[in-house]
Design goal:
Layout: H1 8-26, H2 35-55, H3 61-86, H4 98-153
Helix pairs in contact: 2-3, 2-4
Length: about 150
């Protein structure tokens, strides 16, 4: 059997490191000021751009293709920004339970329900435009609420 002698200085240094790591993990890390508007704008503009490209006449296929490319880049930008900001320690809070969790879930489904309702009379363009606008607005409201909750915990 091997026994390791750890001196008091090394043990104290290890305890201090552990204490600093625990304190850093417990600190709230709120969303940056710019993030809610940026993420919501990228999301909304991306889906609205795809919806608008579907509305363009067939003779404007090049403009439609360019609009779809720009919209796809906006959606990729949304994914990249969201991943960079929200995948840090302390950003994503625990999911609420009970009535609060049900309300949060219903609020997140609202854009899909609205887009589905407008898809019936207006087809794919109505679905995509509504999803972009209502999804972007819902995204903005949820992120601002999450940011306010994170700032209140600090």
């Amino acid at each position: 059997m091997n026994f390791h002698d750890i001196g008091p200085e090394d043990a104290l240094a290890s305890l201090r490191s552990a204490h600093r790591a625990r304190a850093a993990a417990g600190r709230p890390n709120p969303l940056p000021d710019w993030y809610p508007a940026t993420a919501a704008g990228l999301f909304g503009a991306g889906f609205a751009g795809i919806g608008l490209s579907v509305l363009l006449p067939e003779r404007l296929w090049l403009a439609a293709a360019l609009l779809q490319l720009v919209a796809a880049l906006l959606l990729v930008g949304h994914v990249v920004v969201s991943h960079r900001v929200e995948h840090r320690p302390g950003i994503v809070p625990a999911l609420p339970h009970g009535a609060a969790g049900l309300r949060a879930f219903a609020l997140q489904l609202l854009p899909l329900v609205a887009a589905g309702a407008l898809a019936l009379p207006f087809g794919l363009p109505g679905f995509l435009l509504t999803l972009g606008l209502t999804g972007g607005l819902t995204h903005l409201l949820l992120l601002r609420r999450r940011r306010a909750a994170g700032a209140g915990a600090a």
